[in-house]
Amino acid sequence: MTVALEAKERENAVLQERAAIFAIETQKVENLRALRLAREAAMQVEARKELGKTPTARKNLAA
């Protein structure tokens, strides 16, 4: 193999590794956001229960 071809293969390997790491980190952020939103929703449900209110269906305002 030529030096240029080996360098290109190393570069591709590094880029693939960086892409994999980026995908993992992106998934972590998305999971944390989903967890935060779920916690917020649960807190709202608990707050409504404490106030004696139940969630009501939203009216379709577009009609």
Q: What string gives the helices and strands in order? A: H
The chain-level mean pLDDT equals 89
Helical/strand content category: mainly alpha
- Beta-strand residue percentage: under 5%
Care to describe what's here?
The protein has about 60 residues and is mainly α. It has one helix at about 5-50. The longest helix has about 50 residues, at about 5-50. The chain is rod-shaped and about 75 Å long. The termini are far apart.
Short description:
The chain is mainly alpha-helical. It has one helix and no strands.
Architecture blueprint of SSEs:
Layout: H1 3-51
Sum up the structure in keywords:
63 residues, single chain, 1 helix, mainly alpha
